[in-house]
TrEMBL record:
Record Pfam families: MOZART1
Keyword Mitochondrion: no
Organism domain of life: Eukaryota
PANTHER family: MITOTIC-SPINDLE ORGANIZING PROTEIN 1
Family in the record: Belongs to the MOZART1 family.
Protein name: Mitotic-spindle organizing protein
Length: 85
């Protein structure tokens, strides 16, 4: 990726992350970047949103000290997609 394209991609992710924070989605930058990449690959955004909600509801109630990391959540999303799509 050339430097200009890299800068544009980083700025786009920054903007999407700011919007995500304003909307209080609870998505971290890494998870958001994975979800955007999946949309770029043609995965339906509404299906991804439903999947994120479903995975959050399936997680057992954990204290903040033992909450799964964002990379763990992203990995769950990817595994689900590989299994069902």
């Amino acid at each position: 990726m050339d430097p200009e394209a890299s800068r544009t991609a980083r700025e786009s992710l920054d903007l999407a992350f700011q919007m995500s924070n304003i909307l209080d989605t609870g998505l971290d930058r890494h998870t958001l970047s994975v979800l955007i990449a999946l949309c770029d690959l043609g995965v339906n955004p509404e299906s991804l949103a439903a999947l994120v909600k479903e995975l959050r509801n399936e997680k057992p109630s954990l204290s903040s000290a033992t909450a799964p990391s964002s990379s763990s959540f992203s990995f769950d999303v990817i595994l689900f997609l590989l299994r069902y799509f």
